[in-house]
Amino acid sequence: MKAKKNKNPMVVGRSLQFPFSKGILSQRLLSIGLSPDEAYQIAEKVEARLLKRKSDRIEKDALRKVVSGLLKREHGGKTAEKYLKWERLSVGSASYRGSSGFLVHIH
Predict the structure, then answer these.
(1) Domain assignment of residue 3, yes or no
(2) HEC per residue, 10-42
(3) How many separate domains does the chain show?
(4) What is the pLDDT of residues 70-83, one digit of tens each?
């Protein structure tokens, strides 16, 4: 029997791993100035690319490259650079949405 592919690819960081989340990525993209629709569209495209990959894991750095590449193509270089600057501020952190609805960064 063939192993079932994980619906949510795992994002692998230095000290932890967590499932990719369109919601978390959308929140990050909202924080750099994208509209809710634009942010969600990018997050959906990223998810589609991840699901097409042979691996069900992706390194955080590789995920950043996927996201910044899509942003550059669809929203320009300045938007992609804003995203990368925001990501550099949260290096070494993981994001989770707590039960209260707040987005939390864990270092």
Answers:
(1) no
(2) EEECCCCEEECCHHHHHHHHHHCCCCHHHHHHH
(3) 1
(4) 999 999 999 999 99
